Amino acid sequence: AQKVTQAQTEISVVEKEDVTLDCVYETRDTTYYLFWYKQPPSGELVFLIRRNSFDEQNEISGRYSWNFQKSTSSFNFTITASQVVDSAVYFCALDGFNKFYFGSGTKLNVKP
Amino acid sequence: DGGITQSPKYLFRKEGQNVTLSCEQNLNHDAMYWYRQDPGQGLRLIYYSQIVNDFQKGDIAEGYSVSREKKESFPLTVTSAQKNPTAFYLCASSIDGTASYEQYFGPGTRLTVT
């Protein structure tokens, strides 16, 4: 069965702190894709990253970085030096052949 | 600009009425999707379509219907059979539904049924 677990329901940090959002997934597929999306208060989901199961290199994009570890079935997302504009709900998702499986999301509150 | 349009942003209906949510994309994407989001929860797939004139049920299709007569349009009808229709509805599209491409989302429609 395909499943994505985001155990952190809500996280609050003070601006400039680093924060890591956890994502653990379950799949029996040998080839799969993982995604992260950001949902700001406006509601629209914004695509952040797509990673295939054969590429375990960490990815960095500005203040964002992702740590993919197949051994622990995790795809964690770190925001360095968080800003108030990072406040949103973040979703991790797993592609299961024509269907996305979303986690329940982690709400990040960044306080000034 | 290319993107996905959903209208209206807020929709109010009386119980027992059918209501149709609009979704239009000009990204030339083959695949389109409808999701439902309830407060504090993730997204659940209602219906998806990989090509014109074809669509498949997702995990929670009961009480919903769709059509895909044009590539750019994928309207969702919430019927009176849907027992708890109040929710936030998101439409998405991707280049090709048969491959693991990222999905792009519209701004959503918040439906309230009383």
Write the SSE topology.
The complex is a heterodimer of chains A (112) and B (114).
Chain A: E1 3-5, E2 10-14, E3 19-21, E4 24-26, E5 33-39, E6 46-52, E7 59-61, E8 64-69, E9 74-79, E10 88-95, E11 100-102, E12 106-111
Chain B: E1 4-7, E2 10-13, E3 19-25, E4 31-37, E5 43-51, E6 54-57, E7 64-66, E8 76-78, E9 87-94, E10 104-105, E11 109-113
Parallel strand pairs in B: 2-11
Antiparallel strand pairs in B: 1-3, 3-8, 4-5, 4-9, 5-6, 7-8, 9-10, 9-11
Plain-language structure description:
Chain A is 0% helix and 54% strand. Chain A is built from no helices and 12 strands. The N and C termini of chain A lie far apart (41 Å). In chain B, the strands form 2 sheets. In chain B, strands 2, 4, 5, 6, 9, 10 and 11 form a 7-stranded mixed sheet that branches. The interface between A and B is medium-sized, with 23 and 26 residues.
Name a few traits of the molecule.
heterodimer; A: 112 residues; mainly beta; 6-stranded mixed sheet; 4-stranded antiparallel sheet; 12 strands; 0% helix; 54% strand; globular; B: 114 residues; 7-stranded mixed sheet; 11 strands
